[in-house]
Write a structure and sequence with these properties.
The chain has about 290 residues and is of the alpha/beta class. The protein contains eleven helices and eight strands. Strand 1 and strand 2 form a beta hairpin.
Length: about 290
């Protein structure tokens, strides 16, 4: 599958643009006018995951969505720059080059960690909203095995090709997504099935997992002054509510809210509830901006 150009049926493809900000060829979607809100998806996803939430935002805000390096339609320019710090650094450089200074950064899962790191690096003031934020260590045996397995698989020849064939099966995708605690429509599942069949997407996601190092950011949480709002879902089987609750307790300027009956992909399951939840956090005090 060639991810050089956004597919015409991909959500908001008419707003897609590509910009070469080294080392990556970034896929960005730019919708609406007003204060800028940046949306950062989680590992293994793309801008499509925000498709149901965006219509609640674009009447008042300029929404910028981006695919992480190598995932979706962003072409990976440096394989060794898929970890937390490198992705945040490269995304900060991209935003600076495009003269974009988000007032709010909304991140889902691992995207929330990237949002916090970006807020540290950026020369603009912003709020961070984390939806089921992955802000914790892996625990128990999985904490040892998962990073090691990810690194081993990522370094195996043809591993991404093999995994894309295995993961691309409909039943495999259904099983993976059920493991998040979320129930998606058949139409939404199709996007993930297509992503799972993409060797480049799988490879970049593996590299992200292999290079992911959250420890330095977690150690700095008590010193981060960024206004942060953490929203967690009670039925999240991937990142438990307690993760956001602990992180909010460590952050000096954060709050925490739990939502019942939703899973890890809450913004895809019930965008209206998420929109109502974040609306008070988006009071930016102005009607226009860059």
């Amino acid at each position: 599958m060639n991810w050089q150009h956004a597919k015409p049926y991909w959500p908001f493809a008419q707003y897609s643009q590509f910009t070469l900000q080294k080392p990556h060829l970034w896929h960005i979607q730019d919708i609406g006018t007003g204060p800028v809100i940046l949306l950062i998806h989680g590992a293994g996803s793309t801008t499509h995951s925000w498709q149901h939430l965006v219509p609640f935002l674009t009447d008042r805000y300029r929404v910028i969505m981006v695919d992480l390096p190598g995932q979706g339609f962003t072409r990976l320019g440096a394989q060794q720059r898929c970890g937390l710090d490198h992705m945040a650094e490269d995304l900060t450089s991209c935003l600076t080059a495009l003269d974009l200074a988000p007032k709010v950064i909304i991140g889902h899962s691992a995207g929330a960690a990237i949002a916090l790191r970006l807020a540290e690096l950026a020369k603009f003031d912003c709020k961070v909203i984390g939806i089921n934020a992955a802000l914790d260590h892996f625990r128990g045996v999985a904490g040892v095995l998962f990073p090691l397995l990810a690194k081993a698989i990522a370094n195996m020849p043809f591993s991404s090709s093999l995994l894309s064939k295995i993961a691309g099966h409909d039943q495999t995708v259904d099983r993976i997504l059920k493991g998040t605690g979320s129930t998606l429509t058949a139409a939404d599942l199709e996007f993930y099935k297509e992503l799972m069949r993409s060797r480049s997407h799988i490879g970049a996601t593996l590299q992200m997992m292999a290079q992911w190092d959250l420890e330095p950011l977690l150690a700095r949480l008590p010193r981060l002054q960024t206004e942060t709002h953490l929203i967690a879902s009670s039925n999240d089987l991937a990142v438990p509510c307690a993760t956001s609750q602990r992180a909010a307790a460590l952050l000096p300027n954060a709050d925490y809210q739990a939502l019942p009956n939703l899973g890890h992909l809450a913004h895809e399951e019930d965008a209206a509830t998420i929109a109502a939840c974040i609306a008070p956090m988006l009071d930016l005090g102005c009607a226009s901006g860059t």
